[in-house]
Amino acid sequence: MTTFLGLGEMGRALATVGGAATVWNRTPKAFPGAAVAATVEEAVAGTGLIVACLFDLTSVHDVLDPVVDGLDGRTLLNLTTTTPRESRDLAAWAAGHGVTYLDGAIMAVPEMIGGPGSAVLYSGDAAAFEAHRPLLDRWGTATFLGTDAGAAALYDMAMLTGMYTMFAGFLHGAAMVAADGGSVTGFAAMQAPFLAAMTNGLAGFASTVDTRDYGGPGQQSLAFTDTALAALLAASAEQGVDPRVLTPVRELVRRQIDAGFGAQGTARIFEELSGGNR
Ligand code: NDP
Question: Residue ranges of the NADPH-dependent reductive aminase-like C-terminal domain (predicted)?
Answer without folding.
Answer: 148-273
